C-alpha cells in the first residue's frame, strides 16, 4: 500500500482502547478515529498531494477541518471534516 494511503498504526490501537476502556460509551470515539483517518486519506487523494507537500501533480489546496457531529443509536460522535 502506498505511503499516502497507510493509516497510522496507533489509530487502530486508540480505537480499540476506547472500546475496551469505556465499552459502549467508547463507540463514538472508536468510530471517530478510523473515519478521521479515512477522510485524511481521501483528501490527499483528491488533492494529489500530502499535507504540506508541494509537487507538480497537486490539484488544489485544503483549508483545515470543520467539526461535524453525528448522532448514532449508541452515542454521539464528532468528526473533523476537511
How would you portray this structure in words?
The protein is built from two helices and two strands. With 82 residues, the protein is an alpha+beta fold. Strands 1-2 form a two-stranded antiparallel sheet. β1 and β2 form a beta hairpin. α1 (9-22) runs antiparallel to α2 (27-47). The protein is elongated. Mean pLDDT is 77; it is low at 1-8.
SSE diagram, text form:
Blueprint: H1 9-22, H2 27-47, E1 66-71, E2 76-81
Antiparallel strand pairs: 1-2
Helix pairs in contact: 1-2
State the strand order across the main sheet.
1-2
Q: What oligomeric state do these chains adopt?
A: single chain
Low-confidence stretches: 1-8
Radius of gyration: 15 Å
Order of helices and strands: HHEE
Q: Which range best describes the helical content: under 10%, 10-25%, 25-40%, 40-55%, 55-70% or over 70%?
A: 40-55%
Distance between the termini: 23 Å
User: Count of DSSP helices?
Assistant: 2
Proportion of residues in β-strands: 5-15%
Shape estimate: elongated
Overall structural class, as computed from helix and strand content, comes to alpha+beta
Characteristic terms for this protein:
43% helix; alpha+beta
Concise overview:
Helices cover 43% and strands 15% of the residues.
Amino acid at each position: 500500500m502506498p505511503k499516502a494511503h497507510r493509516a497510522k498504526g496507533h489509530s487502530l490501537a486508540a480505537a480499540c482502547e476506547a472500546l475496551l476502556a469505556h465499552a459502549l460509551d467508547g463507540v463514538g470515539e472508536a468510530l471517530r478515529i478510523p473515519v478521521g483517518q479515512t477522510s485524511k486519506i481521501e483528501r490527499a487523494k483528491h488533492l494529489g498531494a500530502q499535507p504540506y507537500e508541494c509537487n507538480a501533480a497537486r490539484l488544489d489546496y485544503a483549508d483545515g477541518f470543520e467539526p461535524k457531529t453525528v448522532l448514532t443509536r449508541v452515542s454521539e460522535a464528532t468528526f473533523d471534516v476537511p
